[in-house]
Design a protein that fits this description.
Blueprint (H helix, E strand, L loop, with lengths): L5 H21 L30 E6 L5 H4 L7 E7 L12 H16 L3
Parallel strand pairs: 1-2
Length: 116
């Protein structure tokens, strides 16, 4: 069986790749160079004092079993963030179950309804 020299084999690979990519260099596409249209926004000036959700005061709370009464008055106190703690020691040797996810979803809904 005839084996081509290694140098000839590499040359054939180079020519094959060049042949495949040549049309892309010959006919470049303009789809990537088009700039999106500019959008103008007009904002209304406001002097209202509102809590910044990224820099506001926060409160720690346990998320499992969270009740609406726990978080209902926090927004009025200037609290805009909740740091929810979920203790999952029970799941050290097993997967999370649907009950845990339901408790977390309930806690997220309670926090969302409180405006936090």
């Amino acid at each position: 069986m005839f084996k081509p020299p290694k140098m000839l084999k590499n040359k054939n690979i180079f020519l094959f790749i060049a042949f495949i990519y040549f049309p892309f260099f010959l006919f470049p596409s303009n789809t990537f160079s088009a700039e999106p249209p500019l959008v103008n926004f007009t904002f209304t000036e406001s002097f209202d004092n509102f809590p910044n959700p990224e820099r506001g005061f926060h409160r720690y709370t346990i998320f499992r079993g969270l009740q609406q009464s726990t978080v209902s008055g926090l927004r009025a106190q200037g609290i805009s963030l909740i740091l929810g703690v979920t203790i999952v020691n029970d799941y050290k040797d097993k997967d999370f179950d649907a009950a845990l996810f339901n408790q977390l979803n309930n806690a997220f809904n309670v926090v969302r309804n409180a405006g936090l």
